[in-house]
Amino acid sequence: MEVANSSLSDDQGEKRILSENIGVGEYWIVDVQNVKIIAFAVVDGGSKQIRESLVLPGLKISLLEEALQRSRNMNQRLVGNCLIEKFQQ
Half-sphere exposure (CA, 13 Å, Cβ side) for 82? Predict the structure, then answer.
């Protein structure tokens, strides 16, 4: 996972290729500027963007984006509690 505040192009390019080469299962980028998460599954020596984790089945990237957006205006503990409630459903 990369947290990109000013390094988004490197994270999407060079670092993603490095992750493909070492064979990680998934590569995630937290885009701080645009408050979004970009996730890739690494398969067959390349990568493709995903909206649901393959490594953590059932985990939708949109749920994590929602938590990231809430963390801008909400107490971190409350955001964590919201996530736990969603996972328990």
Answer: 15
How many domains would you assign to the chain?
A: 1
Residues 37/65, Cβ–Cβ less than 8 Å? yes
pTM score: 0.82
Which residues span the domain enclosing 72?
2-88
Which among 60, 11, 57 has a CA at the least distance from the CA of 32? 11
What residues are paired with 80 via a beta bridge? none
- What's the CA gap between 35 and 14, in Å, rounded? 21
Q: How does DSSP classify residue 63?
A: H
Residues 6+ apart with CB under 8 A from 39: 26, 27, 28, 29, 49, 50, 51, 53, 61
**Average pLDDT of span 74-78:** 86
